[in-house]
Amino acid sequence: MHLIAPDKAAALAADAAGLRLPRSVRRSSQSIDVLLDGERVWSFVPSRMETHDRTVPWPDPLRPYLLGRARVTISDSSTGAELCSTEAAFSTDARRVEVSDAQGRRLALNKWGYLGRTIEGSEGLASRILDHLDELVAVTKELGLRPFVVGGTLLGAVRAKSLLPYDDDADLAYLSEHSNPADVALENSRVAATLRDLGFEVVRHSNAHLQIVFRRTDGELDCYVDLFAAFFADGQLNQPFHVRGPMSRSELLPFGAVTIDGRPYPAPADTNAWLTLNYDAHWRTPQPGYRLATPISTSRRFRNWFGAYNFQREFWTAWYDAADMRPDEHDLRATSRLAQEAPAGGRVIDLGCGTGGQAVRLAELGFSVTGVDFCDAALGVARERPGAPVAWRALNLIDSRDAAQLLALAGSEPTPMHLVATHFVERIGHHARAQVWRLVRALLRRGGTMMFLFDTRPAPNVRFADPTTWHLDVADVERELTAAGLRVKDLEPLSDTARDEQRRPVVVRVTSSDDREH
Q1: pLDDT-based confidence at residue 5 (cuts at 50, 70, 90)
Q2: pTM
Q3: CATH annotation of 123-310
Q4: Dihedral of CA 112/117/118/121: which sign?
Q5: Which of 200, 352, 395, 478 is buried most deeply by CB count within 10 Å?
Q6: Given a cut of 60, is residue 517 above it in pLDDT?
């Protein structure tokens, strides 16, 4: 890769629409950084960007923050050299642009295209991540596992003996002695259970990928460490979610050592072989805009072996992290209809409760409410919401183990259980929805009603990356419900707002097909 020659006089223009880069930068296959008033907010490879009229549009997650003015600087990710710069006005506000969260912590677009905190923008974060990494290395060794650092953590250690400044976590794997994926999955399940018993907060992304979450004293998310299961099979090293390729045992074992900020960590015997397998032959060149491109064959193999419980989690985390940038709106029409159908004081589960407006309203009406969501950012807002008390639970209903927990929460008493869900079923994907219908039937067999609201038409800008633009066909939903042993009692089209005219939502009331009229 060639270096871009700095040319601070080159024509750079920026406004609310996007960036118009000088030709020398626009054609580059090298990563560049975009800084606002000296703070990096985004990195990308210009030659990979689709442009309109030679304008690189701002990423959607950044747009809500572009209010006021800022000095826009383009710099070389490899060297940090400034390439060009300009003063830009994004709105008529006199203030300077601030890309930060509610606590004033700087945010930047991460490698998945979402806004998040980075090590370079968070004082003391690197040290805290390494403290937690030290703890997990010790614990996994005590469990008889063979841990070693991988991913961006290994990359930073080899390239600079530090964590990558634009990263936000640490990556740790353990080498399993098993070669059968079923045995690897069972082992990973035992590891997750043991870590929870030891007091760790564990998020399961698959049956071979765990995320260990660490919080601040106020309960807010601070950082996390990814823990991957690695194993040899089919003559290849396998490490979900991305690594699957030729690597010999002698290239991995015996483990060597790398240092990060003076701390030693176990690492592959041949770090070059592992980093080339995970990234590519150019891993030595800093590229904050680099995106992992996992082959479809690898993704399918790992999903078939270990499942995938992380569907759209990154989107919802970013969505609710930016909740303060959006109006606080809650569609309470499904709630109102459930309140009319269910007896006062009954038990209600709000599926996909989000920031909790619907759940709190039901609690204020006298119901005993449990709000369920898999997004920590949403539940963080919900827990701070004033009003009647609600039991908030972080459960991922894609995972049958979490679904079983929800059944256990319902208890053994044969009292009716009611459910409500707003814009949930059309946004969770068909695999999760099939499990949710089975769960709903099990809960409603004791009596009770489910009231749910969903869009029947897509948004004009519908795209897979944004679940809020999705829809479901009514006939398809009715077929799914019937197959799951559920019965549609009534279906009401809604037409109260301009959005209703565009998206045509409906409210559906269902009961178990075993339910008899009283």
Answers
A1: low
A2: 0.84
A3: 3.30.460.10
A4: positive
A5: 352
A6: no
- 92-128 pLDDT, tens digit each: 988 999 998 877 778 998 877 888 888 988 889 999 9
Cβ–Cβ < 8 Å for 155, 167: no
* Contacts of range 482-487, beta carbons closer than 8 Å, 24 or more positions apart: 482/513, 483/437, 484/434, 484/437, 484/438, 484/440, 484/441, 485/441, 485/512, 485/513, 485/514, 486/437, 486/440, 486/441, 486/444, 486/450, 486/510, 486/511, 486/512, 486/513, 487/511, 487/512, 487/513, 487/515
Q: Do domains 123-310 and 317-512 have the same CATH topology?
A: no
User: Domain limits of the chain?
Assistant: 13-116, 123-310, 317-512
- Tell whether the model's pLDDT for residue 26 goes beyond 90: no
Nearest CA-CA partner of 483 in 432, 440, 419, 438: 438
Fold of 317-512: Rossmann fold (3.40.50)
In this prediction, residue 50 carries a pLDDT of: 73
List pLDDT tens digits, range 325-363. Answer: 554 567 999 999 999 989 888 999 999 999 999 999 999
Cα 36 to chain centroid, rounded = 25
Strand partners, 214: 223
